[in-house]
Here is the input.
Amino acid sequence: MQFDQILQYVLSGLSTGAIYALIGIGFSIIYNATGIINFAQGEFVMLGGLLTLTCLDLLKLPIWAAIPCAVAVSTLAGLLFERLAIRPLRQPTPINLVIITIGGSILIRGLAMLIWGKDTHAIPSFSGDDPIAIGGATMLPQHLWIFAITVVIIVINKFYFYHTISGKAMRACAYNRRAAGLVGIDVRRMVLFSFMISSAMGAVAGIIVAPLTMTAYDVGVMLGLKGFCAAIIGGMSSGMATVVGGLLLGVLESLGAGLISSGYKDAIAFIILLLILFIRPQGLFGKADSERV
Amino acid sequence: MKKIFAVCGVFCFSLMFATVSFAAGTIKIGGLFSVTGPASFLGEPEKKTLEMLVKEVNSKGGINGMKVEAVIYDTTGDATKAVQLATKLIKDDKVSVIIGPSTTGESMAVIPVAEKEKIPLISCAAGIKITDPAKRWVFKTPANDHVAAEKILNYMAKQKQKSIALLTVTDGFGSSGREQIKTLAKQKGFAIVADEVYGPKDTDMTAQLTKIRGIKPDVIICWGTNPGPAVITKNVKQLGIKIPLYMSHGVASKKFIELAGSDAAEGVMLPAGKLAIYDVLPKNDLQYKLLKDYDQAYRKAHGVEASTFGGYAYDAWLLASSAIRKSGTTPEKIRNGIEQTKKLTSISGIFNMSSKDHNGLDLSAFEMVKVSKGDWSLIK
Here is the structure.
């Protein structure tokens, strides 16, 4: 086994892992603010990619304008989703909410299929397609964009949750909703915020991967599941643990496909998911009773 | 109250007679396509094509003066549903021939129904087991996967390429192609040195390709439908792999070049059905006019280029309608008519049916093409 081969597996794994991480954080933000798993998270990934396509092709916007535009529309979609599907629920038991998010994801996917059709679409790379050699391995400029944007988003995330009032309020909701409500935090608004933030993050993830993976109305399903795996590995934390979870998942998948057999690539991801849920349900890095923010 | 009943009664009677008199001059054709669901890329163009053709023939006075009525159902790619709908077509709608289903799985499920009820079934799916062995009432229009595979291997033999790395998708199309290539390679003395797979929704195949790069085969053969092959083409470029890359006929459309980018797709070779490349065919090709007419009519009606998949339904229609024209309208006569089809120029190729061969296409159904400067070019 040659060194450059291993290096390539790791690089490929890291770049897919960064995407899983970004989607995974979207899952955990909503989980922490509301206690539900939002299975529609993958659909926002899809919306990000397809809306960018619309902005580029129909509105003829340049790429730097198309991206914020697509993120804004996806955020709006997240807002509407929370207002129309989550908030009206009288007795929000977790199981009801989870079923609603699954229903919502099917609805969003169906609408996307009607609007954009069933074809796969390509989006141009942000800065060219010439591979960059690192040792014996190669990566694309787009991969650098993925790493950079993931890092920026994680930093912003950290700042928001620890250094702003509304971020701290959201953490308070995570600790104890009732107590947060008693000290005057508008819990429902925080829930709404959490949906907006995570749909925006999902959309960003969808946009930055689209030049590599292409996009279609049904890309959200698998990416959503992998993001969910990443969040589980990270113990549903909205910080570094999920990022590490995502990267770990990406690298293991890639090494598994390269060294064992590509037939087991997805199986590897889901076996890890099951093992974590059985053995360490608090996540790979969490202590049994740690804070989950 | 009585009056109302009387009126209703009269109305019902008139309705009954109306349908009866209508039915005398119509022939009913059933369509089973997976218009929605995972195989919608097959079913949708097939449905649109059949509707377009029926409309066209009716505007020209029908077949031998009989109007054609198409009853089309959406199977959503579900084999159980396909069986139910096939039964419905036969028992309730009383169709004389069924076109479809779109996928191999559904076709295999519907075959027993067609055989039992003695209704000719013209499948639009490519799987070889549909017509091998030949079943009395079952035909299919897409050329067998192994014909496409054989085309690639024949070309490889000419180039003196010996070892093959396989990269196939883990769905029906990919695994069927994988089996065919393996069997053919064994017969023709090629060596399979790598046998990798990927999932239909996978977004990065660099791991598999890195492994293949380490093995250094003469060629890579990838068997799948979009978007996987486009991702692979991009990944090959990213990894700087210089090994010749062959694709299946499953990506023989401009969409593939568009998705992979003309830069990355440069030099990719594949066996293509003639529809995708008719504009580079010589003008004296037997199929040229038909292909051009179909593509232009389809573009006019739906605003997108005609696809090979829609062509499968077109051919099924050609087989059925010419059988009806020549032989008659009962299921038995249509079946015999289809089986006796000889030298029928169609979208997929030239059909020559026999009692042993219910597909009727040979190697001439495909042409080897290469991507050059963002378009297809024929390999001589």
User: Anything to note?
Assistant: Residues 12-24 of chain B have pLDDT under 50 and may be disordered. The longest helix of chain B spans residues 2-24.
